[in-house]
Amino acid sequence: MSNVLLATDSTALHQRVHEASGGTCIAVPAHPLPADPAHLLAQLQEQSLPDILVLDATRSPEDALALAARFDREVPGTAIVLIGDADTLSLDAMRAGVRDVIDAGTGVEELRVALGRVAQSLAVHRAQPVDPVTAMPILQAPGRVLSVLSPKGGAGKTTLATNLAVGLATATPGSVVLVDLDVQFGDVATALGISPEYTLDDVVHGASLHDPIALKTHLTLHPSGLSVICAPESPASADAISGDQVSALLSTLSTQFRYVVVDTAAGLGARTLAVLDHTTDPLLLSTFDVAGARGLAKEMATLRELGMLTNARQVVLNFADPKSGLSTQDVEATIRSKVDLTIPHSRAVSASLNMGVPLLQHKPRDPVSKQVGKLLAYYADAAAKRGNGRHRAAA
Ligand SMILES: Nc1ncnc2c1ncn2[C@@H]1O[C@H](COP(=O)(O)OP(=O)(O)O)[C@@H](O)[C@H]1O
Ligand SMILES: [Mg+2]
User: Fold this and answer.
1) Residue nearest to atom 9 of ligand 1 (CA)
2) All domains of the chain, ordered by start, with CATH?
């Protein structure tokens, strides 16, 4: 089990974290929290650096966030977890390099799971060799290409792609890139609230297409640690981007990132077919209605014919409404395939899009965030199985 340093004044929390960490927790007072990580670490005396720092942010969230940010910069080998309200703290926490925000009332079992997850991602992060020139992780195998596809616009591709990418980046910092391949009308930059200096246009027409070092200078970084390639500003210049260029870009990216998440335009145009050629994990998305299911059935039939419908696919229905008169079984009969996940309608989705903050960060407990969390768990599980050499694609 990992060494845990806990800063809190609550004996009840200390007791629970102590149990959850298998007795490896050292507690120090949280009031007042020092501004300097060295002052906190000085209280450890002879002990080695902690694997996980748990900061109780319930009394003074601003001090906890400031200390977390400094800790993240100055003690990079330690993962930081905050105790506090996830809904209000998550975004600032992510910006400060915090791995997880856990509610103050969380029980021992849930704490054990959460700390285990943090320890696991820390172990992966530490084990990963870094290329001294590009400062990117050296991959043992090509990265996974997760493409979000749907026959029609407005199904929620951008919503799903951005939240999924941010979730993956939070779990595996520095290992995820999101590419907006809805080249004409892509709105990933808006959804993430970022203003890119370079876009897909610069990437495909320069040396970066085949050169990872040049490529790195053209990426836009999101506060979650996600790298992003945004769609071009002008739909006209976007149209000049070919399927071959898309193909070359995805090949280069998959040598540099563990996960390449691709947001696509509706339908199966030349660029999306090039994306499919590189896709290891297709995510097929449709609205939960008759027209959506029929469109999805046609798209899946085409992919089946092309031999592109791998078993690792995930079929996701958005805007699920139990009162619509349509059941998941009806859709499954239409598409001749299992539905893996349904996502309900939530007003928080458009609010978060307007703010430019992914829902997963803005409202981690929203029902839509919870469903995205299930997809993240599926990909983490698939990665763990591959790691053990017994990867089995989802049915
Ligand atoms: N589950 C949901 N609940 C409520 N609104 C949603 C949901 N999913 C998507 N939306 C909204 O629907 C619109 C289209 O979503 P978007 O992700 O842009 O779709 P696409 O990229 O497939 O065109 C956006 O305004 C988005 O906020
Ligand atoms: Mg879109």
Assistant:
1) 156
2) 4-127 (3.40.50.2300), 144-387 (3.40.50.300)
